[in-house]
Structure formats: structure tokens, C-alpha cells
Automatic annotation (TrEMBL):
Location of the PRELI/MSF1 domain: 1-179
GO cellular component labels: mitochondrial intermembrane space
Protein name (record): MSF1-domain-containing protein
Classification lineage: Eukaryota, Fungi, Dikarya, Ascomycota, Pezizomycotina
Alphabetical list of InterPro entries matching this protein: PRELI/MSF1_dom, Slowmo/Ups
Pfam family, any one: PRELI
Amino acid sequence: MKVFSSETQFDYSWEEVSCANWLKYSPWNKMTPHVIAVDTLQRSVDPATGILRTERLITCQQSPPKWILPFLKGQSTSHVYETSYIDPKTRKLTMCAMNITWSDFLNVRETCSYEPVRTNTGAEHTQFKQYAEITALCGGWQKIKNSIESVSVEQFRQNAANGRQGFEMVLEMCRKVWQEEREKAAQQQTMAA
């Protein structure tokens, strides 16, 4: 098993980040062309806790190295099952994802969280933590398993870096659109008065 973890801060409030999360794979994000579809399977709110639980199926077009393709039966399209929890009381967004495709060959389990943090200046930012365990399940030599895990971790690292950069694009666009909407609403109120 190999582990990937990273941590960063977004210079946006938790409210902005948790709302923009639903647009993470939108056309505003130019850095995730490998994501070709996102389907919401189920969404519910727990009446006791107020936690929004969402299940999604994410379809990706991968670019695995040619030497791994035989292990994947030549298949480069994969599906990821994601469950997210948004707790409005604790202001925490947690996403858990696992691969469905190739799961008999490679097991990938990822957990991401977004939580508000205060900076030294008192501004609110959002702390992002990402953790993934990647385990090759194929039989055979340990050297092959290690190679598959290492390649997978490196691909995961590249996708994560691109994902963060793309999410920054989405956050920037959301902030711009939300500001425009606030200005329109203020104009309409002024005109109505």
C-alpha cells in the first residue's frame, strides 16, 4: 500500500468553497478534462443533524502507462463512487471516494475535507486536507505491485495538483458571478424603492 496526502488553504470562505464544490468539474475548471461525467445518485438531509449527504458517480478517462493497460484489460474509462457530507453546524465538508472500475486490481480510497480556518489577520480561509490509500491487489511479484502503486500515486499526485489549480479557477469564477448577482439584486432593490 502507498499513501498520498496533501494539505493546502484556499483564500475563500468555507461557504464559498462548499458551494463551489458542486461546480468542481464544470466547464469553468479547465484542469480536469479527464472527468467526463458526474452523476448524482442520491441526496438527502438528515433531519436530526442537518447533514447533507450526497452520493455521486464520477466517470473519468484515464491515461495509464501502456505497460499497465494489459492489467486493465485495455480499458481506460473508470468510475469513482463518491459520498460527501456537509455539516452546516460544524462547517465541515467531507468527501469519501473509491474506485469501482479495476477494483479487483487496484484499490483507491480517498478522503478529503474542507474546514474554515482563521488567518493571523482574522480573515477566514478554508483548509483542505486530502488523504488516499492506494493498494495493488494483483497477484504476483511484490516488485510489480510496488511499480503499479508508485505509478498510481504519481498519477494521483498530478491529478490532485491539477484539481486544486482547477478548483481555484472555479472559486474565482463563482466569486465573480456571486458578486454580479449581489450587485443586480441591489440595483433591483434601489429601483423598486
